[in-house]
Design a protein that fits this description.
Shape: elongated
Order of helices and strands: HHEEHEEEEEEEEEEEEEEEE
CATH topology of the largest domain: Barwin-like endoglucanases
Radius of gyration: 57 Å
Number of helices: 3
Strand content: 35-45%
CATH class of the largest domain: Mainly Beta
Strand order of the largest sheet: 13-17-14-16-15-18
Number of strands: 18
Oligomer: single chain
Largest sheet: 6 strands, mixed, barrel
Length: 340
């Protein structure tokens, strides 16, 4: 053994027997390395040799087949239908939810799965997944306003005044459509609606004030009246009324009186029986007849067959004083037909 310089650590050096040269010393070191590698390599060589012997091959084959049988026994085959696509899978035992999760098949919260997700899987099971979607659409639907008529005793009869113009409202209509695998399902459509903007009615005042008036005709006739109406006047007589001559009611009016000058026919919903009228060129008349073809603005002037005169024109008809009770008055007259 040698000693180093003062202040340095001692280093033990292996003792070399006398008579060995430096070359022999390096050979000793290499022999130590060979022994170490031999301890590692020999077991590896023995294992490789054993695997290539019939006994080793049989042992490895038995181990492999046992592992295969174990893996095969824990999986089951099944078929999954998603829309128009089919998937044949081999999945571990468990529930349908486990099989889909193991196969990385995502199921949406609205999708339909048959059988249910909690059902245990069986061999050759058929699983149907329906992709369900819900689509919402909204539309504004106009709501027409109503027309409200208000009687005004300070407004003359047959006069009108607009109190409020009216405004249309709107309704929100929501449609909830359901689609299965991209196909619309009309039977599952749901519709709901609510009023978004209430309509405002159109308010019209009509006159209920009746005033006694006097009409002076060009022929010198003077009549008191309470209303003047524009009416389509025509004429008829027993032979022109369309009644068969052998009918028991031929020549008689609705009131039972025989046809004569001064009897007029009208719509009784507008001019009740007994209403007295005056028509320029015809004179006075009384509503004692009616007919199915008479409209609310029609007045048929009666004649005998001997003094018949043809009428077919618009005329001013004066309703003679006094007026009937308020509940028998048609306060709002129907509009005049423009095609006459």
């Amino acid at each position: 053994m040698t000693r180093a310089d003062p202040g340095s650590k001692l280093v033990d050096m292996p003792t070399i027997p006398e008579g060995f040269s430096p070359i022999r010393k390096s050979r000793l070191i290499r022999l130590d390395r060979v022994r170490w590698w031999g301890c590692v390599a020999v077991p590896i060589l023995l294992l490789c040799t054993l695997c290539h012997t019939p006994v080793g091959v049989q042992a490895l084959s038995a181990l492999t087949s046992r592992s295969a049988r174990t893996a095969t026994s824990t999986t089951v085959p099944l078929e999954v239908q998603i829309g128009d696509r089919q998937h044949n899978l081999q999945v571990p035992s468990g529930t349908v939810a486990d099989a889909l999760a193991w196969s990385r098949i995502a199921v949406g919260p609205l999708d339909l799965v048959d059988p249910s997700l909690e059902t245990p899987v069986d061999a050759d099971m058929y699983i149907r997944i329906v992709i369900r979607e819900r689509r919402v659409s909204e539309a504004l639907v106009p709501v027409p306003y109503a027309v409200v008529w208000e009687g005004d005793p300070t407004l003359p009869i047959d006069h009108q005044a607009l109190r409020a113009p009216g405004r249309a409202g709107s309704t929100v209509q929501r449609n909830l459509d359901e689609h299965h695998d991209g196909q619309a399902m009309p039977d599952l459509r749901r519709t709901e609606s609510w009023l978004a903007d209430a309509p405002q009615p159109r308010r019209i005042a009509y006159g209920r004030m009746i005033v006694r008036r006097v009409y002076e005709s060009p022929a010198g006739d003077s009549v008191d009246y309470w209303r003047k109406m524009r009416m389509w006047t025509t004429s008829y007589s027993p032979a022109r009324a369309g009644t068969p001559t052998d009918a028991p009611w031929y020549g008689y009016t609705f009131s039972g009186e025989p046809m004569r000058n001064g009897i007029v026919a009208a719509d009784l919903d507008v001019l009740p029986l007994g209403t007295r009228v005056f028509v320029e060129g015809y004179g006075e008349g009384e509503v004692l007849d009616t007919g199915g073809g008479l409209g609310p603005r029609d007045l048929d002037l009666g004649y005998t067959d001997e003094d018949y005169r043809s009428w077919a024109r618009w005329s001013d008809v004066y309703l003679l004083w006094p007026p009937p009770p308020a509940d028998e008055i048609v306060w709002i007259l129907p509009p005049i037909q423009a095609d006459r």
